[in-house]
Each structure stands twice: as C-alpha cells, then as structure tokens.
Amino acid sequence: MPAAFSPAEFDEYVMHTYARFPLTLDRGEGCRVWDTDGREYLDFVAGIATCTLGHAHPVLIDAVTEQIQKLHHISNLYYNEAQGKLAQWLVQHSTGDRAFFCNSGAEANEGAIKLARKYAHTVRGIDNPIVITAKASFHGRTLATITATGQPKYQKNFSPLMPGFYYVPYNDIAAIELAISYLDYEKPQVAAIMMEALQGEGGVSPGDRAYFQRIREICDAKGILLIMDEVQVGMGRTGHLWGYEALGIEPDIFTSAKGLGGGIPIGAMLCKSSCDVFAPGDHASTFGGNPFACAVALAVCQTLEQNRLLQNVQARGEQLRQGLEAIAPKYPNLISQVRGWGLINGLVLNAENEVNSAAIVKAAMAEGLLLVPAGLKVVRFVPPLIVTEAEIDRALAVIDRVLAEL
Q1: 112 and 258 fall within a common domain
Q2: DSSP 155
Q3: CB–CB of 321/334 below 8 Å?
Q4: Is 142 helix (H, G, I), strand (E, B) or coil?
Q5: How does pLDDT run across 50-60, given as a tens digit for each residue?
Q6: If both were cysteines, with which of 98, 171, 262, 266 could 300 make a disulfide (CB 3.0 to 4.6 Å apart)?
Q7: Which of 50, 350, 339, 374 is nearest to 205 (CA)?
C-alpha cells in the first residue's frame, strides 16, 4: 500500500485558498466518513449541503457506472437525452419553464445576472441595469458573484469590482422600497432583485414571508425580475423542494447547484419563458449539461421524489432543531439562539463570548462529528437528506458534550 499523502505534502503543491482542517478523508458511506487512519466521523457537513444522498449511495453508484460506460461528455454542439430529461424534471417540479446547465452555483448565478441584464437592455430599455442584493448574502466567488455578495470580507483586494449592484439589509422591506425609489428616481435602473430564501453563508438566517411577498408585488408592478439563489437551500434542503416555496412566491429566475448532483458538479439556471431572452451565442458552458453530470443529477432528483425524502427532511429537521433548542438554555453564556429550516440549521453563538464557530467545529471534530461554520458566530448543521433519527440523536449528544467541555 502506498504511503499516505500528508497535509504537508498537499500544501506544497496545492494553492492555499482554503483554511483546511487537519483531516484527510478517505471514504464514506451514508452519513459517515472515515479518515486515512480509519477513524469514523458523522458527517453533518455533506460537502457543504451538497451530498444529498450521502456517500456511496447505491443510486449514485448505479447512475455513475451506467453513464460512464455509455457517454460522459459531448459538448453542447449536440442534443443529449440526459440533459433533456433533467431539464424536464426540473421544469415539471418548479416554477421554471426552461433550464440552462453549467458546473457550479457561481456559474448559475452568473447566468442569472447576464439574463437579467440582457432582459433589462432588450425588453425594458435600461442602459445601465442594477441588480439589488442583500447584505450578508453569498452568491459565489467569481468577480460578478462576489460583487453580488453583500459581504465586504469576500471582496477585499479584488477591486475594481463589477458595476451594477446595490445592497440592502435582508428582511427589511422599508430599505428595499427606499432603494428602488432612489435608484429609479430619474429613470428605471433596477433590473432585478437577487435574494436567497435563507441566507446560508450569511449565518443561516431565514427569509421573512411577508418581506418576500412584498418584493414579489413590487417586481410585478415595476417589471423588475426576481431572482432566487437556491444553490444551498434548493433540492429539498429546507423541507421544500425549493426555498421559495416556503415563502409563498414564484421567482422569475432561480438557480441551483450543490445538492442537485448529490456531489457531482452541476449547476442550473431556470427561468420563466417570459424572460428567456438568451439567443445562441449569448451564454455557454463547455462542460455544462454533459451526459454524465445530468444522468447523476436526474437520479438524485428521482430518488428525492420516489423515496419521499422531503418528509424525512421535515421530520429530522424538526428533531434536530428541537434538540438544539433543548440544549441551548444549558449554555446561556455560549448560545444565543437556534434558527433554520429543514436540514439547514444554525447554532448562533453569543457575540460577547470569545468562543467562535471554528472552535466549536474543531471540538466536535475531535469527538467524531463534522460541522461547518457559517461566519464567526454560527455553527451550521447540514447533514445528508437521508440522515436517520439515530444519527440526529448521536449528533445532539456530541454537541451537548462539546458545549459542556467548552
């Protein structure tokens, strides 16, 4: 057996764009993973809300094996059945009419921004379109999507940023109404409003239903497009197939990635036919929508539906939230609140306490539970959607023990 590739060797050859935890994972099964020393961990990170069916799920193995033996990539010069069937499933299970496929959430959001800009130019006659986004949002790491992201820490040292974005506080309807009045004072400039139904990287902050319904009313009245970033909260993560369903609205455009492929890279941007203004050559992706990724994503979608996983997300999410809410009062100096939907939940730490989310994550890792920060003061719980009642209980016991030790 060859010697393990050490973190020191890894760091010699790989750019240091991630602050990695000192852990090398080797294999997984269901909601468990093992490191190169054979130690087992309960995985409540799931590739950051990506491994919908967990690890080594038989459906994934079968889909990967079958498709790789047939055809894995042909480019978009030709039709491919897997892409068409995946688009059909997504359209039939959402408010979208047509789909564009790419490789990641950032790419999907780039596509949404481009579509909104072209619509503004060609349909509404706007010369310099502006997209309104929320503070504390997260939309990706490309230049356009970090500009759309309302968090200065992601934008530092990458100026000049892309023009055409304006930020408002999340869940503050007065602020967004004031912003639109200001931006459209002399002539219409607001092309789109781009929001997450629940801010994941921004601290697991759920959207307010009345806020989003008012945004939908404003967009309808003014011809503004409503874009919902479903990259982290879509594909059943919230207990609904799409986060916008929890808010009682329909977007004009929405994006998906992460959980769509169950861990295989794929992104999608869907829109209503009324704003589908892209023509051949307007947008493209070499690998986007290839037969391999689409076949796996379709298998994930069908399993999500056939195995009634949304019901599991609702039940296990409620179990996890109630468990965390029962634990939190035991540690008032550490925990201020619990928030979330379905199987995306945040344990919010007291701002006054010196303990940060990374400290909790490291302590939990030492006890065999993998968690992920959502900012300095929120610990995120995003297990695979197949997580069991016993696994939720195990995670709760570990976090209780960790908080007691801290």
Answers
A1: yes
A2: H
A3: no
A4: coil
A5: 999 999 999 99
A6: 262
A7: 339
Question: CATH code at 272?
Answer: 3.40.640.10
Residues 274 and 314 in one domain: no
Burial-class residue 159 by CB neighbours within 10 Å (0-12, 13-18, 19+).
exposed
Q: Which run of H or E residues covers position 102?
A: strand 98-102
In a domain, 65, yes or no: no
User: What letter represents residue 169's amino acid?
Assistant: P
Show which residues are catalytic.
Answer: 138, 229, 258
Amino acid identity at 396: L
> How far apart, in whole angstroms, are the C-alpha atoms of residue 341 and residue 344?
6
Do 206 and 240 form a contact (C-beta atoms < 8 A)? no
> Which residues fall within 8 angstroms of residue 183, CB to CB, at 6 or more apart?
130, 132, 166, 189, 190
Which tokens is 201 given? 């990287």
Which candidate, 338, 332, 364, places its Cα nearest to that of 350? 332
The Cα 268–Cα 88 span in angstroms is 12
Q: With bands split at pLDDT 50, 70 and 90, how would you rate the model's confidence at 2?
A: low
